[in-house]
Amino acid sequence: MTDRRSFLKRTGLLALSIPLLKNELFAAPFARKLPAKGIQLYMVKEDMEKDPAGTLKQLGKMGYTQIESYDGNKGVFWGMGNKTFSKLTNDNGLTLISTHYAGNSGGFEKLAAEAAEIGMKYLIYPWKGPQKGIDDFKRIADEFNGYGAICKKNGLRFAYHPHDYPYKPVDGQLPIDVLLAGTDKDLVDFQMDFYYTVTEGQDPEAYIRKHKPRFRLCHMRDVLKVRLPKGSEDESACDLGTGIIDYNHLLSTALDNGMEYFFVEQSRFFRETPLQSAAVNAAYLNTMKLA
């Protein structure tokens, strides 16, 4: 009797587990996550200036694993030197992937060597500003090729981060198209800021597909469902998942077309502090269901 009961118990449990196992087997190939969750430190710049160690510790606890720096008052390594800052990030479960930097060529070459020394992947040029004519953007493309060559010589990559102005027509052309065409794909990648692409009326997925795999990095923030009056370039930015951008679909497309690094970045907040928004955004990324 005992053997019979044990057999029925085992077969009953097996029968119950088959549907669950079947669901897991069929769901697994379609359930994807981002390779890592990143954040651009400019989002929490006031906290970083006051307490870099404490701020990095909080970001690590939120679940971020990658960071991108920028050239602020204390430099991209926050006044610590490249190795010391890299150790601090690593101690908090974070990897310094990239930094924004718009210095001169001499400073750029020095930074490229320091970045390569600690295993960084990218130096990113964040801002050139609107130009008078489209020929100016052609000149900038040549300049970016030069920066790309410097990075390649040092064993890392160069990228450009377009804001809103490259999506505004100049002399009948979009500067972003001129920059993509005029830069060497072996030397220059791009970091898409989804907010600017969408608010300027362009289709981010179309650009990502057409120019695969040149958009290797991104900045993520959402766009309010009801746009606010013009007041600043970021007047309608909001936390991820609270706006109009379908990030589940968008990031699935990005992953399929060569994008590797994903950074939360926001400069307008509905929370009391930027760190609270950082936590909300990190939690949202955990809920995503990428095809």
TrEMBL record:
Stored InterPro entries: IolE/XylAMocC-like (IPR050312), TAT_signal (IPR006311), Xyl_isomerase-like_sf (IPR036237), Xyl_isomerase-like_TIM-brl (IPR013022)
Domain of life, per lineage: Bacteria
Signal peptide: none
A Pfam entry, by short name: AP_endonuc_2
Sequence ranges assigned to domain Xylose isomerase-like TIM barrel in this UniProt record: 61-265
PANTHER family: HYDROXYPYRUVATE ISOMERASE, INOSOSE DEHYDRATASE
Name assigned to this protein: Xylose isomerase-like TIM barrel domain-containing protein
Organism: Mucilaginibacter xinganensis
